Amino acid sequence: MPSARHPSPSDPLRVCVLGAESTGKTTLCRDLAAHYAVPFVPEFGRWYTEAMPAPKRYTWTTVDFVTIATAQNRFEDDAATRAGPLLICDTSSFVTAVFEEAYLGSRSAGVEALHRGRSYGLYLLTDPETAFEPDGTGLRDAESRRWMHETYEAHVMALRSPVLHVSGTREARLQAAMGAVDGLLGERARPG
Questions:
Q1: Where does the pLDDT of residue 189 fall: very low under 50, low under 70, confident under 90, or very high at 90 and above?
Q2: Quick check: 109 and 41 in contact, CB under 8 A?
Q3: Are 12 and 36 in contact (CB under 8 A)?
Q4: Which helix (H) or strand (E) holds 104?
Q5: Separation between Cα atoms, residue 24 and residue 101, nearest integer Å
Q6: Is the whole model's pTM more than 0.85, yes or no?
Q7: How far, in Å, CA of 26 to CA of 23, rounded?
Q8: Which of 5, 18, 142, 159 has its CA 20 to 30 Å from the CA of residue 148?
Q9: At CA 8, angle to CA 181 and CA 183, rounded to 5?
Q10: What number is the average pLDDT over the span 177-186?
Q11: What's the pLDDT tens digit per position in 24-81?
C-alpha cells in the first residue's frame, strides 16, 4: 500500500486546506485555484458520500475509509504531475483518518499507512468559528467541529510544516492564504 511521497524540486508546491466540516475549505480552494489559474484536487470523501442513497443511515466500515484515502492520494499525485508550480488540495488522506475515528471510534492501520509520510509545503487551517456552510454530508455539531479542528491543528503542528490559520470573511481568508502562497512560491523561485 504506497503512501509516502518524496517530493522532488520539480514537484509543485502542495497547499493543503484543512479544517472542521463546513468551514469554507472548498470555497477557499476554488478561490485560490481561480486566482492562480490552477486546478484544485477536490475532496473524494465528499463525492463518495454524496453518491450514497442515504448517507446519514449508512454503516461505515474501514474498507470505506481505505477506499477514500487511496483515491484521495491517487487524485492528488496524478494532479501533481500536471499542476505546474502549485497544487491546491481540498483535504488530505489524514482527514480521512480523522473521519474514520469519528465514525468508527479509532483509526485503522490501513488508513494510517496511507497518510503517513505525505507532506505539504503549506497547510491552511480554517477557523471552526467560520459560519456554517452546509454541504449535505457529515457530522454537523459544534463539539465535532471543535474536536476535528483541534485534531487537525495538532497534526500539522507535529509535522512542523508551515501552517496558516485562516479566519474572517471570505476575502480576508483568501488574501491571507494568497500572501502565504506567494511567499512560498517566491522562495522556491530564488536560486539555490
A1: confident
A2: no
A3: no
A4: helix 93-104
A5: 22
A6: yes
A7: 9
A8: 5
A9: 15
A10: 95
A11: 999 999 999 999 999 899 999 999 999 998 888 899 999 999 999 999 999 999 999 9
Give the type of residue at 142.
A
Q: Write down the residue that cell numbers 485534531 correspond to.
A: 151
Whether 136 shows a pLDDT value over 70: the answer reads: no
What cell numbers appear for 25 in the block?
475549505
Where in the sequence is the domain holding 99, given as residue range(s)? Answer: 13-189
Query: Three cell numbers at 8?
Result: 522532488
1 within some domain: no
Query: Is residue 177 situated within a structural domain?
Result: yes
Q: Which single residue is written with the C-alpha cell 454524496?
A: 50
Residue in this structure with the C-alpha cell 486546506, named with its chain if needed:
17
In terms of DSSP bridges, do strands 13-18 and 122-126 run parallel, antiparallel, or are they unpaired? parallel
Q: Could you tell me if residue 3 is inside a domain?
A: no
Burial class of 152 by CB neighbour count within 10 A (0 to 12, 13 to 18, 19+): buried
Domain CATH code at residue 105: 3.40.50.300
| Mean of pLDDT over the chain | 89
The predicted structure's pLDDT at residue 8: 54
Domain count, the chain: 1
Q: Is the residue at 7 inside a domain? A: no
